[in-house]
Amino acid sequence: MKHSLKSMLLFGLGLLLLACGNEANFLNSVAPASGARVKFYHLAPDAAGIDIYLNDQKFSGVNTVPPAVAAPLSYTNSFPNQDYATVTPGTVKVKIVAPASTTATTDATLATTDLTTQADTYYSVFLYGVSPTYSSLVLTDNLTAADPTKAYVRLINLVSGADASATYDLAINGVVVAAGVAPLKGAATFTAIPAIGYATTAVPVQLRAAGTTTVVGTTTLTIQPYAGRFYTFIARGLVGGTGTRAVNLTPSTNR
């Protein structure tokens, strides 16, 4: 009886060790990947949808599971939608393509750029402009909170059009936090603003004509600026545009 009990205990211990080994392997397999972090934005108002290629390999939609087919990245959206994608540090060729569709028989390259990255560094890549001239803007995103009790915001002005010369202010909860941001410009650095507590009522966000209280755009935005979070606001659209092409404000949470 004692021998049988001892055998059962040893067998159970072996199973426990095996299970622990499997758990350790699983945890290793889901550990966050190391590398550079990149986020891509589509802010070209007359491009219906785009695909992102890195070194001629399609990158946007890489997490789509067959037989599903990745949809092109639509205007005002980003890839990834949340957080950043991980890429191998170094220099890659970024190619932004309008894929073939019912109205275009072949793919069309809208813009290309060389993207040089470093490990554990964050980058944002913006497509902007209108046909036939599209461009890209690359920013390095410093997501280190100098004061962990604050939230952080920035405004990027990517309004397009031949006469796109207006400058804009960003007001949060009635206070201007970014002033006089010129066309196709923006600060890579973030500005600290007061944070609010969790489950607290969101505060209003406005895009204003610089130096005035005149609100630009029809989108009603609010934000819950939590401590340690980083937010990008993008002035986008086409001067004189209507509907989805009108000048407006697009938000994005960086962290």
Automatic annotation (TrEMBL):
Signal sequence extent: 1-24
InterPro entries: DUF4397
Alphabetically ordered keywords of this record: Signal
Protein name according to UniProt: DUF4397 domain-containing protein
Residue span, DUF4397 domain: 36-162
Domain of life from the UniProt record: Bacteria
RNA-binding recorded as keyword: no
Keyword hit for Transport: no
